[in-house]
Amino acid sequence: MISVSDALDTLLDLVSPMAAETVPLRAAAGRVLAEPVSAKRDQPPFAASAMDGYALKSAEVEKDAMFKVIGESAAGHGFTGRVGAGQAVRIFTGAPIPEGADFVVIQEDISRSGNLITIANHPGTSTNIRPKGGDFQIGTTIDAPRVLGSADIALLAAMNIAQVPVRKQPTVALISTGDELVLPGDTPGPDQIIASNTFGLDALLTAAGARVRILPIARDTESDLRTAFELAQDADLIVTIGGASVGDHDLVAGVTETLGMSRAFYKVAMRPGKPLMAGTLGQSAMVGLPGNPVSAMVCGHIFILPMLRAMLGLATDTPALLTAPLAHPVSENGPRQHYMRGRFDGQSVHVFDDQDSARLTLLAEANVLVVRPPKDGARATGERVNYLPI
Ligand SMILES: Nc1nc2c(c(=O)[nH]1)N[C@H]1C(S)=C(S)[C@@H](COP(=O)(O)OP(=O)(O)OC[C@H]3O[C@@H](n4cnc5c(N)ncnc54)[C@H](O)[C@@H]3O)O[C@H]1N2
Ligand code: MOO
């Protein structure tokens, strides 16, 4: 059995960053920017009014001063003339500041009669002008890699970048194995259960940027499993679920061997997740997850998500674990690194009594995995433990 950190290093070596592709702006949301992009224009492209009011000369601003309104500057339609002494231009938010003006008095501070305005209240010191290029300028760069969120998409749009270079999405083929499994919505026989891991992993990996293909459930025969692997062969990453252990119907190791998999490791000193296997099969990286639902999901968090990050060209440094005091004592840990479901309530962390790796209800209730190193001693209430938010 290898350690979790050795397993992770090995898994990261099995994958490499995907090539870049160019996609239309709207399709770039949630994708990873593959190379830095630079603004093609200044924003705003001209000094612009931040308020609705009157543009005039700051030197003339004082209470009771009067001005003649000589024109209008609206967003999209600037005033082409020049503001002289004693003159003002009616202006609206987003409109270009006319030449000669360097101050906008908001309309609430003005009284108007025909073409004459008077500053009725002291307008304060803010000019109410956004300078040209005040948000960004030609050449302002968005650095890569970066997962593009909604604010980034708005910024790219403002920069007039309509085509965005992003990493291709890794394709992940999910193969569930087992005679006992049927799909959600189907009618299970008396000895059957619903395939759940497949859908949990699909949600986890899709949210992390993968393009997931769920293959038909492979029954517990070598030929069925072989067919599933054939269907999966063009995937960047093949993930099997179940059939990884030592039972008579656990066929993944045997079948992948006959298909020529170069195996990187089998079994990791962790709990849950011990019977994890990995290697390369043809052009694809392959990970065989244990079938127990919690084991499969925990391995998804600990191993598959970092692999996806590597494929997307994102940093793969192990995120620093958070720490919190225990709400109650916990007993000594065994020889495997234990990922224990628990709940952090903002003050302390409660580790659930029952850590059965078949219990999805407890995974859904958990918001943390408390990480206990191998042979970690018994811990008292208030002692700080490491945890990973999930
Ligand atoms: N004698 C031993 N028995 C077991 C060992 C061991 O070391 N010696 N390891 C145990 C551990 S730890 C795990 S984890 C499981 C892993 O077993 P497999 O990967 O072979 O998984 P299966 O036997 O196929 O299934 C286990 C369990 O999970 C259910 N399952 C499988 N796939 C799905 C799915 N897609 N959705 C929902 N549930 C699924 C399956 O019905 C079984 O109940 O082995 C232990 N045994
Ligand atoms: O280690 Mo297995 O993955 O608990 O249930």
TrEMBL record:
Limits of the MoaB/Mog domain: 173-310
Q: Which reaction does it catalyse?
A: adenylyl-molybdopterin + molybdate = Mo-molybdopterin + AMP + H(+)
EC code(s) of this entry: 2.10.1.1
Instruction: Give one GO biological process term.
Output: Mo-molybdopterin cofactor biosynthetic process
Top EC class of this enzyme: transferase
**Transmembrane domains' residue ranges:** none
Name the cofactor(s).
Mg(2+)
One term of GO molecular function: molybdopterin molybdotransferase activity
Q: Which domain of life is it from?
A: Bacteria
* GO cellular component labels: cytosol
Q: One Pfam match, by short name? A: MoeA_C
Question: InterPro entries from the entry?
Answer: MoaB/Mog-like_dom_sf, MoaB/Mog_dom, MoeA-like, MoeA_C_domain_IV, MoeA_C_domain_IV_sf, MoeA_linker/N, MoeA_linker/N_sf
**Which of UniProt's keywords are assigned here?**
Magnesium, Metal-binding, Molybdenum, Molybdenum cofactor biosynthesis, Transferase
Pathway assigned in UniProt: Cofactor biosynthesis; molybdopterin biosynthesis
What this chain does, per the entry, is described as:
Catalyzes the insertion of molybdate into adenylated molybdopterin with the concomitant release of AMP.
**What family is this?**
Belongs to the MoeA family.
Which protein, by its recorded name, is this? Answer: Molybdopterin molybdenumtransferase
Q: Which organism is it from?
A: Phaeobacter italicus
